[in-house]
Specification:
Layout: H1 4-27, H2 35-54, E1 79-80, E2 83-84, E3 88-90, H3 98-114, E4 118-120, E5 123-125, E6 138-140, H4 147-153, E7 160-161, E8 173-176, H5 185-194, E9 205-209, H6 222-231, H7 236-258, E10 276-280, H8 285-298, H9 307-315, E11 324-329, E12 348-351, H10 353-356, H11 359-363, H12 367-379, E13 383-386, H13 391-406, E14 418-425, E15 431-434, H14 444-448
């Protein structure tokens, strides 16, 4: 097979010959608008299109600007819309909180996409005690998210596979991820590019070892991560549990409003239409230690928020019709202050899991599933208020931004699907309006937090 250089020269010769033929015919007296010249022009155009678009360049089937989407021609018969089904990528067990795990998973997916490999379904962690390895409780991806649904929604973008799909059990190529200050974004990218070439690319499976994907360098824009998150659909069991919690919240809100005589005539009797505000209160002991250190390192004061500051700013959100029910999403096991329900202004009725009467729903599940239910309840809220330096809050704001964009409000910050960051002071003494910048070239702001938010 000729080299890429030879093929390039051949294409150049085809184009030059076609152009020179047209010029010579015109010089010999053929009119530009004659039938013969028109036919010849069509032949020239056909040759040009064939040379540019159909010439079989070795090693490259698809090229997308500003991306690393790469397709190897030798595996076309084993691909599905450019994702090879005979080459795999394996990553370490994914750890930490729910949304750090989601980012880890998305980063692993995008790494596999760059290598044009199918990602072997990784193991998640049901427990939060990530530092004590012996306490980790591994849980399969398909115990949280729908496996087939993921592949259906992400068809042609990335692909997930089970270990049973490996055709043989040959030793995989082990790729050690670098670490430390000397391991730059550029070095990490060069390492990945080397894995796209032989002899590494010949291995059926590449196994990445050394660190959690959340800590890998980032090479992809926000919109690519958002695409992965769109494909993550909770299994029916967890989604149904979240629906029960949401129904209970709206029921409590409906009961509260029906008792308010001055508002009774203007309120729908259907509890399905009773609005609620979800507040992700990051005041747990582990968070307060982390955010104070982060404020010192980054020289930013808008990270930590006390319970009093959160209550005051939520109370100043304009447009709320009171009485309004609040769902407080907190990590109960790490909460030192049990008074989160007290001190709220008149017209605000806060509920957490136990007061709401849904503790039995949460209590039968490990940490990861509890967090997934909380996430879904916050996602479905009429208004969401969180902390812009929290991964949990940031991914909810991202998904709600996507919903706004889908509704045609790409730069709208209206009350519908609105989000706020209580750690940043906004208008009228309330929290800052919040939309994710979907054009951002990196997920860094979402992974590690930011006080620069779109609204």
């Amino acid at each position: 097979m000729p080299s890429e250089e030879e093929l390039g020269r051949n294409i150049a010769r085809i184009l030059a010959m076609a152009w020179m033929t047209c010029k010579r015919l015109i010089f010999l007296g053929f009119q530009r608008n004659s039938i013969f010249c028109k036919c010849l022009s069509l032949v020239c155009i056909a040759l040009i299109f064939r040379a540019v678009f159909l010439y079989p360049f070795p090693g490259v089937g698809v090229l997308r600007e500003n991306s690393f989407y790469w397709v190897h021609s030798s595996s076309v018969s084993n691909t599905q819309y450019g994702v090879r089904k005979d080459k795999f990528l394996e990553v370490p067990q994914i750890v930490w909180g729910l949304n750090n795990q989601k980012i880890s998973f998305a980063r692993a997916c995008l790494t596999s996409r760059m290598l044009n490999r199918t990602l072997l379904m990784p193991s998640l962690s049901a427990s939060l005690f990530y530092k004590e390895l012996e306490l980790l409780q591994p849980i399969s991806f398909d115990k949280i998210f729908q496996f087939e649904r993921f592949n259906s929604l992400c068809n042609g973008f990335v692909r997930l596979s089970r270990y049973s799909d490996l055709s043989n059990r040959t030793v995989p190529f082990e790729l050690q991820k670098g670490s430390g200050r000397k391991w730059t974004v550029e070095r990490d990218l060069d390492q990945l590019k080397q894995c796209r070439e032989n002899p590494i690319d010949e291995y059926e499976s590449i196994r990445i070892v050394g660190k959690n994907p959340f800590l890998w360098h980032d090479h992809w824009p926000v919109k690519d991560y958002a695409k992965i998150f769109e494909c993550l659909v909770l299994i029916d069991e967890i989604a149904d549990e979240a629906t029960k919690v949401v129904s209970k919240i709206r029921e409590m809100g409906s009961n509260l409003r029906s008792k308010t005589e001055t508002l009774q005539q203007n309120i729908s009797s259907s509890k399905e239409h009773t609005p609620y505000v979800a507040v992700h209160m990051r005041i747990e002991k582990d968070w307060m230690i982390h955010c104070k250190k982060l404020e010192q390192r980054s020289n930013i004061s808008q990270i930590c928020s006390s319970k009093e500051e959160i209550m005051d700013r939520v109370a100043h959100i304009r447009g709320l019709t009171k009485p309004i029910i609040l769902f407080l999403a907190v990590a109960d096991s790490l909460l030192e202050d049990a008074s989160v329900l007290s001190g709220w202004p008149d017209g605000f009725f806060p509920f957490e899991k136990k007061k709401l009467g849904v503790w039995d729903i949460y209590n039968k599940y490990p940490y990861l599933i509890k967090s997934a239910i909380d996430y879904e309840v916050c996602l479905r809220a009429d208004i969401f208020v969180g902390n812009s330096f929290s991964t949990f809050s940031s991914l909810i704001a991202l998904e709600r931004t996507q919903k706004l964009i889908a509704m045609g409000g790409s730069r709208s910050c209206g009350l519908r699907w609105s989000s706020y960051a209580y750690n940043i002071l906004g208008a009228f003494g309330g929290p800052q309006r919040w939309m994710t910048d979907m054009s951002d070239s990196s997920l860094n702001a979402i992974s590690y937090g930011s006080n620069k938010i779109s609204c």
